[in-house]
Amino acid sequence: MSTDTQNSDRLIIAGKEYGSRLLVGTGKYKDMDETASAIAASGAEIVTVAVRRTNLGQNPGEPNILDVLPPDRYTILPNTAGCYDAETAVRTCRLARELLDGHKLVKLEVLGDEKTLFPDVIATLKAAEILVKDGFDVMVYTNDDPIVARELEAIGCIAVMPLAAPIGSGLGIRNPLNILTIVENAKVPVLVDAGVGTASDAAEAMELGCDGVLMNTAIAAARDPVLMASAMRKAIEAGREAFRAGRMPAKRFASASSPIEGLFF
């Protein structure tokens, strides 16, 4: 692949181009220094922060995540983690907009219950419609249902983010055919969100044609988060290149690399 071809393959979110297709979260690290080091090693340019759990300036005198992840270096993606109804999610996005000087890009997630952390699809659709009408650029966490993904896109969400498996489970992609169907039908970016456990999971998502992967626990809960962040960076790049290259057809039986046809005896 030529350098020009590589450089032209960019992720576009809300009209802005990004070289990295890996998006990362900021939770579960042991301290701010580890957070900053792991995110730097990941090469991510979009960093998501839980508005209800992270100080973005609403708590004066406490450590501010923006001190180690400056907005002039990273695109900050406020998310509504911990919200269990549409009204709370909408209110959280509006708070983030105030704290970040009119910032419109948000990640919407409305959870259904505390045990599974599966999305409440009905509440998610309701919140998405309100936020889009309010001028937000909404990236939305959802289940791996292609019909729901289609509805969220029709509402006006700028990216659809189906789960690979339950949040923080590390189980990898449980329903690859569902993800593939979403990818094949979407006209907006599709990013796997939740359930990635290791580099091969990230590569698989990219090989399916996803536009990116968002992860947090897979990096933060690794024995060496900085090293895992580096591994995820490489996996995303390799998976994307494999998708663009087009894999060989899978075959049941052998096909010799050096066939016997045409041999001189």
In short:
By secondary structure, this protein is of the alpha/beta class.
What does the model show?
- The chain has 265 residues and is α/β, with parallel strands linked by helices.
- The chain is built from nine helices and ten strands.
- The strands form three sheets. Strands 5-4-3-10-9 form a five-stranded parallel β-sheet.
- The protein is globular, with a radius of gyration of 20 Å.
Q: Largest sheet, described in full?
A: 5 strands, parallel
- What is the percent of helical residues? 25-40%
Question: Poorly predicted ranges (pLDDT <50, ≥5 residues)?
Answer: 1-6
Quaternary form: single chain
Pattern of helices and strands: HEEEHEEHEHEHEHEHEHH
Rg, nearest Å: 20 Å
**Class per helix and strand makeup:** alpha/beta
**Number of DSSP strand runs:** 10
Instruction: Please give the count of helices.
Output: 9
Strand order of the largest sheet: 5-4-3-10-9
Q: Terminal Cα separation, in Å?
A: 38 Å
- Tell me the strand percentage band: 15-25%
Mean pLDDT: 92
Overall geometry comes to globular
